[in-house]
């Protein structure tokens, strides 16, 4: 499966399903490399060519899907935290896992703080 297909499958899964989908650990690295290659390829071509136009269109489409994917996952991950559920680390890409390493202790501490306030 090429990078575009992989992104499309992941994007569609996150948009169409309420549960958090699984991403390979290196997903974001490979997708951003792919997006960078699309942009570089388009810059090297005459802007008036069909190939340049197609690369630009593909680049925009990839960027839009990636943005929607990231925000859909963000919402789902925030829901895990808000519901005090453990985020299943096997579903996270490496970057997401690193972000949650620092966020989970904060969320737990803040929850204890809020409970303490409410208990007087």
Overview of this structure, please?
- With 120 residues, this protein is mainly α.
- The protein is built from four helices and no strands.
Topology summary:
Elements: H1 3-16, H2 27-43, H3 50-82, H4 94-119
Helix pairs in contact: 1-3, 2-3
CA gyration radius, whole angstroms: 19 Å
Mean pLDDT: 87
Structural class: mainly alpha
**Regions with pLDDT < 50 over 5+ consecutive residues?**
none
Major sheet details: none
| Run of helices and strands | HHHH
Helix content: over 70%
Number of strands: 0
Quickly count the helices.
4
Describe the global form.
elongated
Q: What's the multimeric state?
A: single chain
What is the distance, rounded to the nearest whole angstrom, between the alpha carbons of the first and last residues? Answer: 56 Å
Strand content: under 5%
Salient structural properties:
120 residues, mainly alpha, single chain, elongated
Question: Quick summary of this structure?
Answer:
This protein is mostly helical and 120 residues long. 75% of the residues lie in helices and 0% in strands. Helix 1 crosses helix 3 (50-82) and helix 2 runs antiparallel to helix 3.
């Amino acid at each position: 499966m090429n990078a575009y297909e992989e992104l499309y499958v992941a994007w569609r899964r996150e948009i169409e399903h309420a549960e958090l989908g699984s991403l390979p650990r290196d997903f974001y690295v490979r997708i951003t490399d792919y997006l960078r290659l699309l942009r570089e390829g388009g810059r090297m071509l005459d802007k008036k060519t069909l190939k340049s136009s197609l690369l630009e269109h593909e680049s925009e489409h990839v960027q839009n899907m990636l943005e929607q994917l990231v925000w859909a996952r963000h919402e789902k991950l925030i829901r895990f935290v808000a519901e005090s559920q453990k985020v299943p680390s096997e579903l996270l890409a490496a970057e997401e896992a690193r972000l949650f390493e620092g966020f989970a202790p904060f969320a737990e501490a803040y929850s204890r703080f809020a409970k303490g306030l409410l208990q007087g």
